[in-house]
Amino acid sequence: MLLRMAVCARLCGVGQSRRCRRRQRHSQADQDSDSEMDMDDEEEGERVVGKTKDEPEGSSVSRSSSCHNSRPSGAGGLGSGASASAFAGPPHPQSLLDLPPELLVEIFSSLPGTALPNLALVCKKFRQILNTETIWRRRCIEEFGMRDDLRKMEIVGMSSRDLYVKRVNPQVKSGRFMKLLPDYEHMDYRDVYTHLLHPYRHILGLWQPDIGPYGGLLNVVVDGLFIIGWMYLPPHDPRVEDPMRRRPLFRIHMWEKNKATIECMYGHKGPHKGDIQTVKKDEFSTKCNQTDHHRMPGGRQEEFRTWLEEEWGRTLEDIFHEHMQELILMKFIYTSQYDNCLTYRRIYLPPCLPSDLLQPGLFKGTYGSHGLEIIMLSFHDSKAKATKLTGDPNVPAGQLTLEIDLNRPVRLPDLEHQRSMEELSRLVMEVHEEAQRGLQARDAPSEAAEVAPPQGAEGLDSAPPAGAEGVEPGAAACSAAPESQPFVLPLGVMARNEVYPRTCKMCFYGTGLIAGHGFTSPERTPGLFILFDDDRFGFIWLELKSFSLYSRLTDQLSHAQAPSMERFEAMLCNMQSWTS
């Protein structure tokens, strides 16, 4: 960027560096020498400047000839052997105004789209050149990843139309399709960039909707000529390894040449009028202006049956557990209140470090009668943390559901002893008591001596304490990890999914968050974290005698990376305060 600015400054006649003037003096002294010597790219850019006011006439001729011979063929369709008369512009350009239009298009295409409107104010020539579609098409592709070709839509169709028919509104037939979509024949990339992509760039990325304890996961992306807000839903319980489900909540597109249209996609009557408001930084709200599109002819009963089939993949008659029926009905009543207006807060994917036990990211997990929920796994020195993105009335979204101590590995016994819940509880509780003594010693300033792990304790790997000199947090546990070993759940442990991996890599002590209804009396209870592979892990809740299986979310989520670890940790703190 600095080199580009320097070359442009010299092209504009703002000034030339001492190095450039020294080259000019050498060129004047050697004007009769061989003019076809090799030059690097920077010297070629400087030669375009032409002669200066105090340069002899002979030297300028030599420079002009050298410039024509070294000009790339793609810049104006001229090869190295083209004559000077074919040069489309002044023979000795002194500024950007003297450059040929095709070279200006290439220069302007490399600038950020936000700088182009100011550039159009410089002069009439720049304003005319900035009407070139190539410039704006490149900005749409490089800044927002848009891939559709506006010029081919009316001939061969576009992916956005296929997307609309197949995914956004599968009930629309091809014959009705042209009536529902605007006419893009006279639309250009500048309109799309100016009135669609740039004004709504701040809402691209990952967001968590404010739906009380239930939360959610929204991904706003540029999809063809649309900006679409996709709500990500977990698979139907208990198929935790199935792909995520998606449902469009809103979309923004160019209905008219100079105006973007916002439409609500909620309900079963197709897109209808909506609105988007940016409340403050990293927060925005959506509002539906036609909530009658959300209602169904059969009233609330039909809406509930339809919602239950979409949310759980079953009917109420298929759910025999009375407590589970109550939880489902409660969620329907609560979430129905937010069908006309929703507020979203920005969230980020966790940063990835080489020292992490596995790649951080989003996972789907089983949570008993509450069904499947989405959690975010991140690493913080010697700790691994799992934060809920979707929650329930007991432990709401935004709370820290799991916390794993990577400096406290647990060695599993043989398969016969793994089947015993008493044996597993004994192993985990030994580590738990050791962890509690360590916390007490750290909190008591009078006790200077560290509490060391008991030597030879059965079921424990010997690992250096966190922060030991010369040891990375959690590194000892990872380096001492054994090969994959057989694994089986203890008898009496409840599991929503009986299909779970029968081998694991390693296990660690951790705690899980449990609470009463309404997030009352929350407490952290000990448990066992089991790493099966790079995409799956589990957690045994000792007090609940329950097992949760987690599987990685593999969808590609754009505009979601955290700017820094500090911003990510601040986001985690804010998420807990949203639902506390």
UniProtKB/TrEMBL annotation:
Gene3D superfamilies the UniProt entry points to: 1.20.1280.50
Taxon lineage: Eukaryota, Metazoa, Chordata, Craniata, Vertebrata
Name of one Pfam family that matches: F-box-like
Region feature Disordered, mapped onto this chain: 19-89, 435-476
Pathway: Protein modification; protein ubiquitination
Protein name per its UniProtKB record: F-box only protein 31-like
Biased composition (Low complexity): 59-73, 463-476
Keywords linked to the UniProt accession: Ubl conjugation pathway
Organism field: Sinocyclocheilus rhinocerous
Domain F-box per the UniProt entry, residue ranges: 93-139
